[in-house]
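Re: the 236-residue chain
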Amino acid sequence: MLSLRGIHTYYGAVHALKGVDLEVAEGEIVALIGANGAGKSTLLMTICGNPKPRRGSIELRGQNLIGVPTHNLVRQGLAHAPEGRRIFPRMTVLENLRMGAVASDPAHFDDDLERAFTLFPRLKERRDQRGGTLSGGEQQMLAIARALMSRPRLLLLDEPSLGLAPLVVRQIFEIIKEINQRDGVTVLLVEQNAFHALKLAHRGYVLVNGTITMSGKGADLLNDEQIRAAYLEGGH
């Protein structure tokens, strides 16, 4: 579904991504793990067109994505729930979800809204509450639900567990699993929580200083001694 080949991305003179190759097949959950500053968020933003790569190719189902306006990316089935949630804090939950549905067929809105509220019952309870007054976990749920309102075939998730309590983290990862298995949404997941990410993912990549250093099945990476030592606190 998604193919990156030889991606080089810069911030001014800083070489952030250095020849990244990455594949996401339809129906997969693919995890991208790495330390802070490795370039994980930059990779997702590069897929979405900002920043634009200086070299390399990005294709979604065989169609070139480089230079495609963001609203057209959404219409091609791509959605992004960015790091830090970035909901509209002064808008209500319902208004945020309406914003997520702007690029989709209005005829589907009621069904999609009901699906969002089924996945995230807390949001239904808070539908008329301003986004900025929600808890961190509720805001993360809203960010994911808003992305799903565009009916994506590929969902980019950037650090969905960041700053959340362990119980909420487990809930979020269960929902990601359901989105994939029940709704057939392909997921590219960027996560510092390597244990949860690799346990969930079909496959994974390790990004170090802008370069992919390892890849493989999620279970294989989870059991790899190097990965455990570097990202899983010695395996605990």
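The chain has a mean pLDDT of 93.
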